[in-house]
Structures are given as C-alpha cells and as structure tokens.
Design a protein that fits this description.
single chain; 200 residues; Glycolipid-binding domain-containing protein; mainly beta; Glycolipid-bd_prot_put; 15-stranded mixed β-sheet
C-alpha cells in the first residue's frame, strides 16, 4: 500500500512519519481530524549538520474548525539545554508568542497558519485550510515562521499553486526555505517534499 492511500484508508487518528531524503532527520506525528479541525502531536529528531547541532523537537498543535492555527507548543532539546515556545492566536487574530525571553504580541500580517522549518507536516495546514488539495488555485499567505533549533519566530510568506484534484503535477510551493513542487495525499498531507522529506 502506498503512503498516499495509507492515511486515507486508515481511520483517524493516524500516525504519519517522514524521513529526510539525506536520512539526517525523522518526523512523526499523531494526527486527529474532525472536519477541518486538526489536533497533532509530533516529534522531529535531527542529527548534527553543517547548519545546526543535533536536536529533538516536540510539538502540540490545535486548529479551529476552519483549520486555522489557534495554539502551538514547541519544546526543543539540545545537548546543552532545553527550550520551550508557546504560540497562540486570539479572537482578534493577534498572536501571543511566549519564549525564554518573555512575551510579545503581533499580527504577523494577519497570518492564520504556523510553519516550522524542517517539518513537512506544517505545510498541510494552509493546503488543507484553503482546499488547495481539492481545487485549482494560487495563493500567497502570511505565516508565523518558526526556526529550529533556536525557536526564533518571524513573519514570512509562502506561495502555493495547485492544478486541482485530478492533476498529477502536485502543488508548487515557494517559501523562505524552498522553491519546489510537493505531492499530497487525498487528505492534503505531504507525501513528498523534494529536498526536505518523504513519507514512509
């Protein structure tokens, strides 16, 4: 059974697992769906590379009924320290960021999604929320962009372009980290993100 049908044919909740193409990272997430609402608990484990030290990161995500992120908790473990980050969006679409340095609040240009570097899971959030895995459209969206392993947060924009449900072309993606074409399953979750990871 292919990864594309594995999650679709199984009852939710499901566990989705990705491996980096260079075998330097793994990510596994337990995902619960209720309509467009997502609850997910996942972990990323990364070996040391030329750009970052070895680390592990765990996350706990909740979206609202429309698929927009309402809360994300992240914990990163390095050899020398642990760090935590909490991100929450209120009814005014303002984001409260809490980390080891304190709290900050901002609009992040009206972002409704969070993207976490190195994670194929988080790309499903805007793809599912906008329905791009089911229809032909192009969108450019602001996101709250989280860097690992340092847990810095910034505003970024990501562009997606889909040819529709029956297209085998995948979804074109342009982000601060990549300019590529990803493939998704029938539920909008990433199967293959060239240069980043593939579902196993």
């Amino acid at each position: 059974m292919s990864a594309a049908t594995e999650a679709t044919d199984s009852a939710w909740p499901a566990i989705l697992t990705w491996r980096a193409h260079d075998d330097s990272r793994m990510e596994s997430a337990r995902v619960q769906l209720s309509g467009n609402r997502i609850k997910a608990y996942g972990r990323i484990v990364a070996a040391a590379s030329g750009t970052h030290p070895a680390f592990s990161a765990s996350y706990d995500l909740v979206t609202d009924d429309g698929g927009a992120t309402t809360r994300l908790s992240l914990s990163v473990t390095l050899a020398e320290r642990d760090r935590q980050l909490s991100i929450a969006r209120d009814e005014e679409n303002m984001w409260l960021i809490t980390d080891h340095q304190g709290q900050s609040r901002g609009s992040y240009q009206g972002a409704l999604d969070v993207d976490v570097v190195f994670s194929p899971f988080f790309n499903a959030l805007p793809i599912r929320r906008t329905g791009l895995y089911r229809r032909a459209a192009s969108v450019t969206l602001p996101v709250v962009y989280v860097n690992l392993p340092d847990l810095t947060v910034e505003q970024a924009s990501i562009s997606y372009s889909s040819s529709g449900l029956d297209s085998a072309e995948g979804i074109k993606l342009h982000s601060p980290a990549a300019d590529t074409t990803v493939t998704v399953d029938d539920d909008g979750f990433i199967i293959d993100y060239p240069g980043l990871a593939k579902r196993i």
